């Protein structure tokens, strides 16, 4: 059975396979492509809509319970990673 996560953008529940995971490296937000990095994670649909919503709501700060630097993260990175994984996931 696939674990269920909550997207921090649209706040809807989703299967883990349909979301990308972020973790903190210091105070920098990084993509956890393999979903194996230790520590608290934040889950997001690989959709620009959810990403923008998460940024607007400062949902990353809330997910990690501290200020998070997201400036270096672009949606293209997420898109690239999900394409690299070889399948389309999430909402369109
Ligand atoms: Zn979402």
What's the helix and strand layout?
Layout: E1 4-6, E2 13-15, E3 20-25, E4 28-32, E5 42-44, H1 48-56, H2 59-64, H3 75-84
Antiparallel strand pairs: 1-2, 3-4, 3-5
The structure holds zinc ion (ZN).
Zinc ion is lined by residues 7, 9-10, 12, 45, 50.
Q: What sort of overall outline do the alpha carbons produce when their principal axes are compared?
A: globular
Rg, Cα atoms, Å: 12 Å
Question: What is the CATH C level class, in words?
Answer: Alpha Beta
Derived from helix and strand composition plus strand pairing, the structural class reads: alpha+beta
Largest sheet: spatial strand order: 4-3-5
List the total number of helices.
3
User: Secondary-structure element sequence?
Assistant: EEEEEHHH
The parts where pLDDT drops under 50 for at least 5 residues are: none
What does this structure look like?
The protein has 92 residues and is α+β, with helices and mostly antiparallel strands. It has three helices and five strands; from the N terminus they run E-E-E-E-E-H-H-H. It has a single domain (4-84), classed as YlxR-like (Hypothetical Cytosolic Protein, Chain: A), CATH 3.30.1230.10. The N and C termini lie far apart (24 Å). Bound molecules: zinc ion.
Keywords:
92 residues, alpha+beta, Hypothetical Cytosolic Protein, Chain: A, two-stranded antiparallel ribbon, globular
How would you summarize this macromolecular structure in one to three sentences?
Helix content is 27%, strand content 22%. The protein has 3 helices and 5 strands. Residues 7, 9-10, 12, 45, 50 line the site of zinc ion.
């Amino acid at each position: 059975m696939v674990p269920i996560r909550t997207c921090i953008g649209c706040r809807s529940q989703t299967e883990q396979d349909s979301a990308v995971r972020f973790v903190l490296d210091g105070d920098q937000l990084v993509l956890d492509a393999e979903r194996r990095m230790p520590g608290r994670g934040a889950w997001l649909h690989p959709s620009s809509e959810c990403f923008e919503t998460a940024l607007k709501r400062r949902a990353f700060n809330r997910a990690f319970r501290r200020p998070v630097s997201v400036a270096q993260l672009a949606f293209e990175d997420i898109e690239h990673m999900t394409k690299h994984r070889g399948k389309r996931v999430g909402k369109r």
